[in-house]
Write a structure and sequence with these properties.
Elements (H helix, E strand, L loop, with lengths): L8 H13 L2 H18 L3 H16 L8 H5 L6 H5 L1 H17 L13
Helix pairs in contact: 1-3, 2-3, 2-6
C-alpha cells in the first residue's frame, strides 16, 4: 500500500497542489514529520493508512501547507486504525511536537481566515 492508494482523485489533487505551492524548507519539514511518524507507527499498511488519514484531515480542514502534518496527527483518534494504535499515535505526536518546537514551526495551521 502506498500513501495515496486509499485517497480519491480530488484529495490527491489537493495534496499535489499544496506540495507545489510549498517552499523547499517546508517540504523538508513535511518529509521529516512523516518520516518520524512512520518510524513510530511502522512502515506497514496500518502505519501508512494512519498517515493517509492525517493527510486527508489536513487538506480537508483547509490547511494550505503540508508541513502542518504534525498539528493533525494527535487529533486522529476517530479512525479505526487509530483506536488500535492509540499509544503509538500519541508517541508519534509527542515526538513530532518536539520536532516542531525545535524547528520553530507554527502551532496553528496555515489556513485562510474566513470573515
Amino acid at each position: 500500500m502506498d500513501l495515496f492508494s486509499g485517497m480519491d482523485e480530488a484529495l490527491k489533487k489537493k495534496v499535489v497542489l499544496a506540495w507545489a505551492e510549498m517552499k523547499e524548507n517546508e517540504k523538508m519539514h513535511f518529509i521529516n514529520q512523516v518520516t518520524l511518524a512512520l518510524i513510530v507507527l511502522g512502515n506497514d499498511a496500518n502505519g501508512k493508512a494512519i498517515i493517509s488519514s492525517v493527510l486527508e484531515r489536513l487538506v480537508n480542514d483547509g490547511s494550505k501547507d503540508l508541513s502542518d502534518f504534525g498539528l493533525y496527527i494527535g487529533d486522529n483518534f476517530a479512525m479505526k486504525e487509530a483506536i488500535v494504535h492509540a499509544e503509538k499515535i500519541k508517541r508519534a505526536s509527542v515526538i513530532i511536537d518536539g520536532y516542531r518546537i525545535k524547528n520553530a514551526l507554527p502551532s496553528e495551521p496555515h489556513k485562510d481566515l474566513q470573515i
